[in-house]
Each structure stands twice: as C-alpha cells, then as structure tokens.
Amino acid sequence: MLPQFQSSSAFRINSHHLAIGIGIFAIGLFKKTVIADGIAVYANPDFNGADAGSSPDFLVAWSAALAYTFQIYFDFSGYSDMALGLARMFGIVLPLNFYSPYKACSISEFWRRWHMTLSRFLRDYIYIPLGGNQKGSRNRYLFLMTTMLLGGLWHGAGWNFFIWGALHGSYLAINHIWRQYSLQFTYLKLNKMVSWLLIMLVVVIAWVFFRANTFDGAMNIIQGMAGMNEWCGITYCNLGSLRRNGRNFKIVGCYWFPRWCYPIG
Q1: Residue 173 burial (CB count, 10 A)
Q2: Active site residue: 16, 17, 115, 155, which one?
Q3: Phi and psi dihedrals of 114, rounded to 5?
Q4: Cβ–Cβ < 8 Å for 147, 126
Q5: What are 18-52's pLDDT values in tens digits?
Q6: Is Membrane found in the keyword set (predicted)?
Q7: Phi and psi for 237 in degrees, rounded to 5?
Q8: Prediction pTM value
Q9: Which of 35, 53, 140, 248 has the fewest CB atoms within 10 Å, i.e. the most exposed one?
C-alpha cells in the first residue's frame, strides 16, 4: 500500500477514481446512518434495560442481541467503506476490511473476514512475534488467548472488551483443538449448516458482552437468551402495543437473519 503514496498519480483528482470513491463512500454512509443507526434504536433500549436490572424474556433478549449483531457490523463496515471511498477519491486503494463475516463457518474464518486489517495486525505484530504455532500446542493456545485479549483491549480499556477478547481467544483455541481431532476422528466434522449456526451463536454471545455496560446487564441478556427468564412476554392481547413500539421489526429481522447470513454454495 505504501508505494501508492510515492506514485505520481497519488492525490491527483481523477474522474474515474472520484466516481468510484463517491460511490463507495455513499454506500458506507448509508450503512452507518440509515442501517446501523436505525437498528440501534431497537438494540439500545433492551441493553439499557438489562443494565438497569430488568430481565428480558427469551424473544426480547434474542432480538436485542441479533439487532446489535447487525448494528455493529453495519457500523464498522460503514465507517470502513467511507474511509475506502475517501482514499479512492484521491487515487489511493486501501485494503478491504470486511468480507461478509457472518457467512463464516468457523471462528478462524470469521476472523479472516471481520476487521481484516486489525486481524492481520494482531497476527503479524503480536501472535507471530510471540511464537505463533512454532512453540507447541499449549503455547499456541496461550498466544492466541494473549493476542485476542490485547485485541479486545484495543477497542477500549473496559471489562466488556476484556471478556469479549477472552471469549474469542477461547473460541480460536477450541477451533484449533477441534480441527486437530476431527482429522483423526471424521465423525467430529460438522456439516456446513451446523457449523454456521454454531459460529453465529458464539459470535452473538460475545457481542452481548461487548455491548453491555455492566456484567450484570450482559448476564441478564444471556440468561434471557437461554430461556432462564420468561420464554415470551408476548400475548395476543398486547400484540397491538408490540407493533406500536417497533418490536415486530426485530422479530422480522430475526426471521430474515439466517437467510441474509447463511453462506451460499
């Protein structure tokens, strides 16, 4: 990427680059201001309520978690697209940062698709210098955990980011262990649909801790997702208020979620 800055064509206004850049920037702006901010209206009240001590039922907890899962993707992806678009206007081609991460069928594939520039930075400047996979399996898992903990703290010095990093470090370690044993025992291999559902489950759970402001709030959401609170607070009598407060939007979103995310082919 750096040689581009030394090129004579860099930072020169070119109609071709300008048109492409404006298009990419517009897509990113739409993702952020329309989709991400629009979804936030549905995710924030439930997370704020959980932080305040409320116990969401099964449907509310899952709809909040899935809403935030979409929100953070379109938020990060939107900002990245705007940066890509601005750079392209001046003839600079920045690397792609997101590549349909919610279509991943393994957690390692997820990190090859999610925030790819950060993933490469963590790999090249933390994981590999620590020793990578060259110092035995136990050290490899320790290095993975250390790398992801630092990756979590990169987002902010808070307990929620620490737990999020710890979860993803654990996910990656389990992924490598499972893959190692599945080579010996073929019955451990999961089909594509099951793998995708499992990865989406653990990713959504991790996002709950990433979003919640308090540990108790995160656990209230997790307990609701596990059905430990009410299974569903929705009855025929209050469907009218359900529609009025917009909860039906999230229910529809939950229905379309697998259709939008599931990998094709």
Answers
A1: 19
A2: 155
A3: -95, 130
A4: yes
A5: 999 999 999 999 999 999 999 999 999 999 999 99
A6: yes
A7: -70, -30
A8: 0.85
A9: 53
Q: Is 195 exposed, middle or buried (0-12, 13-18, 19+ CB in 10 A)?
A: middle
Tell me the one-letter amino acid at 237.
C
Query: Using one digit for the tens of pLDDT, what is the confidence trace for 214-260?
Result: 999 999 999 999 998 876 654 333 444 344 344 444 544 544 454 45
pLDDT in tens, 49-94: 999 999 999 999 999 999 999 999 999 999 999 999 999 998 888 9
Q: Which two tokens stand for residue 194?
A: 């099951």
| Chain position carrying tokens 């737990």 | 163
Q: How many CB atoms lie within 10 A of CB 192?
A: 11
The predicted structure's pLDDT at residue 241: 36
Alpha-carbon radius of gyration of the chain: 21
Long-range contacts (CB closer than 8 Å, 24 or more residues apart) made by 97-102: 98/73, 101/73, 102/69, 102/73, 102/200, 102/203, 102/260, 102/261
* pLDDT of 137: 85
Is 17 in the active site? no
Which of residues 183 and 95 earns the better pLDDT score?
Answer: 95
Mean pLDDT value across the chain: 86
What do you get for the CA distance between the two ends of the chain, in Å?
32
Two structure tokens written together for 263: 């990998």
